[in-house]
Amino acid sequence: MSNRFNDAVVVGGGTMGSGIAQVFLESGASLVLIEVDQRRADSAAEQVKAGIRSKLIYENNRTDGPQVEAKAAEILARFSTTVGLPAPSAAWSPDLVIESVFEDVEVKSDVLTRIETVYPECPLVATNTSSLSINALSSRLLHPENLIGMHFFNPVPRSSLVELILGTKTSQETINLAQAVVAEISRESILVHDSPGFATSRLGIILGLEAIRMVEEGVASAEDIDQGMVLGYKHPMGPLKLTDLVGLDIRLAISEYLEEKLGPRFSPPQLLRTKVAIGELGKKSGKGFYEW
């Protein structure tokens, strides 16, 4: 990373936030991961550490050993977690803050307002969202021109794309900074104007919902539907396994939001509602469309 983006903060240490943290650490940044309590902070730290070690082992011909441990220690020396937003000081202030909390407008808006208050000099603030309006999320900010959507894809360490979402007030300087950040973490970016579901989620959710309906109707098993998309259409992962990784609760929330904004073609299948109601949320709960 260049000095300009050397000190990063990620707020929210779930699956996405931990993956984002891993990618920035692997790119050379120093990073602070923020959570709401120590239990969640410790859990996020373990996810990041496990992800870094797993990638290093893979790159080392799938072999663990002193070389992997030394490299992991070097990367993790630039990593810390804390509860709540740490105040900037003469010795430290973030060059970039990425909010990655739960997909809820009120929750995200509250976090973004606090980020702006604590880090008024931060040159780039981004929200990791797969569907929520950037205009809505920036509406309470004093400087909405500094906010941009940075939609990372799950699993973040294996994805090469970041979808940049522009609000109506997002400045060109903010766009330029975000594109530079994406390039520095060795990813590609696309620019999309603020619209429900943006470009990728709008297409991806339709595929995922139809796959769930096919399971619901007994058309085929989850495994066979996924295998058909992987082998037949060269998708890196089937839509149902991806739903398990994203989280069925997240898929449901996005579907309901898009149904409200774009109409009944995004209506969630009853099977999805049922699984969320009984706690089958995917990988994070141990069961979704697959056993984990």
What's the Cα radius of gyration? 19 Å
> For this structure, what is the CATH homologous superfamily of the largest domain?
NAD(P)-binding Rossmann-like Domain
Helix vs. strand class = alpha/beta
Strand order of the largest sheet: 3-2-1-4-5-6-7-8
Query: Major beta sheet, specifics?
Result: 8 strands, mixed
Q: Name the CATH architecture of the largest domain.
A: 3-Layer(aba) Sandwich
CATH class wording of the largest domain: Alpha Beta
Q: What is the number of helical segments per DSSP (H or I, 4+ residues)? A: 11
What is the CATH topology classification name of the largest domain? Rossmann fold
Sequence stretches where pLDDT stays below 50 over 5 or more residues? none
Helix content: 40-55%
Q: Using DSSP, what is the number of strands?
A: 8
Globular, elongated, flat, extended or rod-shaped: what is the shape?
globular
Q: What does the average pLDDT come to?
A: 95
Q: Could you give the order of the helices and strands? A: EHEHHEEHEHEEHEHHHHH
> What's the domain count?
2
What's the layout of helices and strands?
Blueprint: E1 7-11, H1 15-26, E2 30-35, H2 38-59, H3 66-76, E3 79-83, E4 96-99, H4 105-118, E5 125-127, H5 134-138, E6 147-152, E7 161-166, H6 172-184, E8 188-193, H7 200-216, H8 222-233, H9 239-246, H10 248-262, H11 270-277
Parallel strand pairs: 1-2, 1-4, 2-3, 4-5, 5-6, 7-8
Antiparallel strand pairs: 6-7
Helix pairs in contact: 1-2, 2-3, 7-9, 9-10, 10-11
